[in-house]
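Ticket #254: bound-state structure for heme C.
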Amino acid sequence: MSRNSEKWSVVTGRWSVRKSTYCLLLAAYCLLALGCRYDMQDQPRYTAQKKSDFFKDGKAMRDLPEGTVSRGNLREDKAFYTGKKETAGGASAAPVQTMTDASGNTLVASFPDAIEEFPVPVTEELINRGEERYKVFCIVCHGPVGNGDGMIVRRGFPKPPTYNDDRLRNAPVGHFYDVITNGWGKMNSYASQVPVADRWAIVAYIRTLQISQNPNGNIKMTSSNSDNTTNTTANTAVTATPTLPNANRQGGAR
Ligand code: HEC
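RESOLUTION: The complex was predicted; output attached.
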């Protein structure tokens, strides 16, 4: 039997030379193949904000087509999301009247851009939600009935104006929404803590506080939205007369 035989040599007890060469080659190939693994995460791709030689403007990221809106951010309903009228900000906007109070605050007394009616159905459920949220976020400064005598104010924080004077009684609902959304003077914005729907709930509760302190006044809680598909109790209240908070229950727990 020759040395180059491909068979197992009974005499030497070894593989022939050619066979062992094949084995070596196969092993080398397997190792190579493993070493050259190319995963999808290793694609030659651009990362955000990187430069590109491919596009003429040198940017790897493409500009979004005009008018693109990310999912959930269409916010087409201007009244609901901003509390402002469709015409707001136009050249026809009336000049805003201001006055100064005893503490030197500049008080705005006319709100030509703010909507007058709630953009959501005014329901008992809405007001109850507003009460709950008001007590979480606003009562500490504005006090239980909105007189600006909350606990923080009693401890020295600047006193907010009362909700219960003619200026804020006559202020349109859009103004209250705007104050919560964007802040007002010394007051912070509560946009990050209070979602849009809850802001309207709080505004509804502020209106009921105003009614409670001036029950014979002419404060309306009308809604421009009679869509009762979004709210099962929509037809229970439009001009709301909920259980009115009691002015004497200042600071009392409930
Ligand atoms: C940390 C105290 C504080 C909290 C909490 C607070 N406010 Fe105020 N708020 C103020 C102060 C102070 C002012 C007066 C700001 C100024 O005129 O510079 C004010 C003013 C206002 C006004 C009157 C705006 C005007 O036209 O004069 C409204 C309405 C109002 N806040 C609503 C709210 C609501 C609703 C909440 C809860 C979501 C809230 N505030 C939470 C301190 C607070």
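RESOLUTION NOTES: Residues 3 and 16 are 7 Å apart (CA to CA).
TICKET STATUS: resolved
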